[in-house]
Design goal:
Layout: E1 4-13, E2 16-24, H1 27-40, H2 48-58, E3 67-68, E4 75-82, E5 85-98
Antiparallel strand pairs: 1-2, 1-5, 3-4, 4-5
Helix pairs in contact: 1-2
Length: about 100
């Protein structure tokens, strides 16, 4: 893919809020990229890694697909359960496509 947008991900889980950014072609690709980044990046808080693993495991199910947020532009939400607690993952396209994007 030649064009990749910058996406900000805001994760709310168990009283904590975690924010990071990735580059991807679509909101779904942004979720995958974020999950992979969390798995490989030890600078990511330990609380976030299991959320990313749970989401990645369940992304193929329709219930875990990012859903467009009504009334907003370029904003989606996905969720997963971890230890019977809800994790909300908001995905916001924060910058347009760039032909020369260097990746995550």
């Amino acid at each position: 893919m030649t064009g990749r947008a910058l996406f900000s991900l805001v994760v709310d889980y168990d009283g904590g809020t975690y924010i990071s950014q990735v580059r991807a072609g679509t909101e779904r690709e942004a979720l995958y990229a974020w999950c992979e980044k969390c798995a490989d990046d030890y600078d990511v808080p330990a609380e976030v890694r299991p959320i990313a693993a749970s989401l990645l495991e369940n992304l193929d199910e329709d219930t875990h697909e990012p859903v467009a947020l009504q009334g907003l532009t370029a904003a989606w939400c996905a969720s997963t359960l971890l230890d019977d607690k809800l994790a909300l993952i908001n995905v916001i396209q924060t910058a347009g496509y760039s032909r020369n994007s260097a990746g995550t």
